[in-house]
User: Fold this.
Amino acid sequence: MSGKAAIVGIGASEFSKESGRSELQLCLEACKAALDDAGVAPQDVDGLVTFSMDSSPSIMVGRGLGVKELRYFSLVDYGGGAACATVAHAAAAVATGLADVVVCYRAFNERSGRRFGSGDAAVQMRGESPMAQHFGYYAPYGLITPAAWVAMAARRYMHRYGATSEDFGRVAVAARAHAATNPKAWFYQRPISLDDHQRSKLIAEPLRLLDCCQESDGGVALVIVSAERARDLPGQEVLIAGAAQGSAHDQHMMTSYYRDDITGLPEMGTVARQVWSQSGLGPQDIQTAVIYDHFTPFVLTQLEEFGFCGRGEARDFIQDGAIHLGGRLPLNTHGGQLGEAYIHGMNGIAEAVRQARGTAVNQVADVRNVLVTAGTGVPTSGLLLSAL
Assistant:
């Protein structure tokens, strides 16, 4: 599938804490913007892909856009881990002729509506489903929020490799530095220092407030077509060089505590092996990356899983501005989910497209290949995008 499909359009609503609009309207705004960017008419869309968690069904989105006929539609499980997988599904569809023009979308009012970070998702989970029973082991003891789930793994990582809260803070400082120069970011013109990070309140030790991503309202959409069709469109295409999903042995939903070692993210390692193999590329070929940053510790772990550094060495890899603009691997140049918005990783894919196009507000020089990751601790996914 490598090189057989391309992203030709990206679009988004504004990112806010109170959209004042339905999730369907946010979705349609993002989809229409992406189609306009691609130079594709809505009636030409014949495929839609989103998350199983999304509240906007494909038939409602199709009706709202004015789609004539849907030939392909699919849902991908698991929150942020689904982001790059939506593109993988779309690429497979257009590469095999199941569809010609596929729109991937995600939209929610995650700040003004249901706030997953509050722990309600775990507390409200009832019934006899395996997932409900799984949470039943933890909820009585207060382990009900994503921050708390990640904190368990982060503490073990610190113990094993000597990482510190300051190491996690360097990820947050870089993200906020990039957000501060991105007018579309929620934290535009609001950088932070490492001291600011260290003074921020503890949420779930060792995680501080500034280690945690935002809760945002907004929507993002992407348009995918075959590489052949992309050449005939007015938009600037970006080739999909690799696209993969991954779920590793003994996978749980953010609480895979029963493995022999909880300091890694083996599901992300599964994704890494696939995208490197599909594309023929390696870490040395990547000029910039969008690494899923819902919580800072897992950025370090992902750098290790993808081979940018050895196990436990990410804390050294990110020293001295390495992940800032001008460093050896600038990360999350839009500000990431820590600084721009938390749209389950979809805004990160849009930033990767801008980097490959050469149109990002914080543009890295001479970008040829961009890595994108989606979700950590859950069944996950990743992309390699290549400039033409």
Q: What stands out?
A: The longest strand covers residues 217-226. The CA atoms of residues 28 and 61 lie 7 Å apart. The radius of gyration is 19 Å.
